[in-house]
Design brief:
- Helix 2 packs across helix 5 and helix 4 crosses helix 6.
- The chain has 3 domains: 133 residues, Globins (Globin-like); 88 residues, Elongation Factor Tu (Ef-tu), domain 3; 131 residues, Rossmann fold, CATH 3.40.50.80.
- Strand 7, helix 8 and strand 8 form a beta-alpha-beta unit.
- The chain has 11 helices and 12 strands.
- The two termini are 17 Å apart.
- By secondary structure, it is α/β, with parallel strands linked by helices.
- Helix content is 39%, strand content 18%.
- The chain is globular.
- The structure holds flavin-adenine dinucleotide (FAD) and protoporphyrin IX containing FE.
- The site of flavin-adenine dinucleotide has 21 residues, from strand 4, strand 5 and helix 7.
- This is nitric oxide dioxygenase.
- It holds the Pfam family Globin.
Amino acid sequence: MEHIENSWHLARPYLDEITQQFYRLLFTLAPSARDFFPVTLQAENGRVVRALIRVLRLVNRPDDLIPVLQQLGRDHRKFGLQAAHYEAVGTALLGALKHCLGPAWTPEVERAWAEAYTLVARSMQEAAADAEAEAVEPPYWVGTVTEHHRLSWDLALVRVEPEEEIPYHAGQYLSVAVPQRPRLWRDLSPANAPRPDGSLEFHVRAIDGGWVSRAIVGHTQPGDVWTFGAPMGRLRVDRESGRPVLMIAGGTGVAPLQAIVDDLGRWTDNPEVTLFYGDHYWDDLYALDQLQSFAASNPWLTVWPVVEEPGSVPGVEEGTLAEAVTRRGPWQEHDILVSGPPAMIEATVAALIRTGVHPSQINYDPFLAM
Ligand SMILES: Cc1cc2nc3c(=O)[nH]c(=O)nc-3n(C[C@H](O)[C@H](O)[C@H](O)COP(=O)(O)OP(=O)(O)OC[C@H]3O[C@@H](n4cnc5c(N)ncnc54)[C@H](O)[C@@H]3O)c2cc1C
Ligand code: HEM
């Protein structure tokens, strides 16, 4: 592990060069892999190389990593990969790191990266092969958009009806490709628990300069066909544990928590759930009305709105979610679910740990982001 960390520390400033070299090598070794990636690689923006490196740096935590790799392997069935693609990705990644590290790429360093990649690729391929053998899940799902309307100028609600039911559980997310941006996959979380008709509701916020989110908010229309990979993620509530639950949602990160709350609504004897829901401005809290009216008829749920802008609404929690939540603690007895932009997750998790919460109490997705 030390070899991976030390060499990554040296290679990190050259990530752009590593990415370029990775694709050069990959498309030479396996030209057919070009078809999996978007026409403009600029739109891919080094996501895959960053993801690969993040995963390989976690191989010393197999208990956490293996379940994630199993989901990722199932998800990657959407590409129709062969063993040769996995080999080519490994060779290209190691070749790109070697190119960049020069003499620091010693045999020990090479062995460490190669072993990590083999373990990761094997777990993903085994999970994909198991899914293949079970033959209960297709490699991907398609669904038709039945509704698209704006909840605010930069936020859209999109309803999709899959042809075949997608076997997700409330709190999970799906990798999605939309017709306006072919082969650019983005993660989105259904905001509803699975329904008898299989329909999914998504809340998508247009990010400044974002390739996919702006296309969805601005140009999606009924009749569009969306493609989905296998469900991923580990946010869930253990109703049997008897422990109270703390949920912390930033922005559209509220969607998977809404889905879990929606699911819990099937029971009356739920654990006590406290949901902090925050954003920059009061008007950004688009899901608040719905959550508050749900809480009014489900006494196990308490909702705390939080806004960063001071003085916007009297009596409302102010500050970042990390500040608001730690002010209202302690949370040492709770199971904790955090959902939102990566920076918000990172700040909130760090603040909770500083107040004495044990890391094992906290869950967030994607696990690979941190
Ligand atoms: C597990 C998971 C679940 C998600 N669920 C949802 C969801 O339900 N609804 C939803 O709208 N989005 C959700 N997202 C975010 C979504 O996957 C995309 O990352 C987001 O829509 C931006 O994609 P893009 O192609 O528009 O931006 P890109 O073209 O990928 O990025 C453009 C620029 O914006 C930056 N950026 C990317 N995302 C953000 C962000 N969230 N905040 C600030 N800057 C950002 C990038 O670093 C880049 O500089 C989820 C993400 C994850 C990991
Ligand atoms: C060890 C093996 C692998 C791991 C750990 C891995 C991991 C990942 C992860 C985490 C993502 C999501 C990235 C994000 O959205 O931020 C991703 C996306 C992707 N992966 Fe893999 N992957 C592996 C192998 C492969 C292989 C063999 C191929 C094909 C040659 C491949 C092609 C892709 C593509 C095309 C995307 C989508 C890129 C985009 O839309 O931006 N992956 N991978």
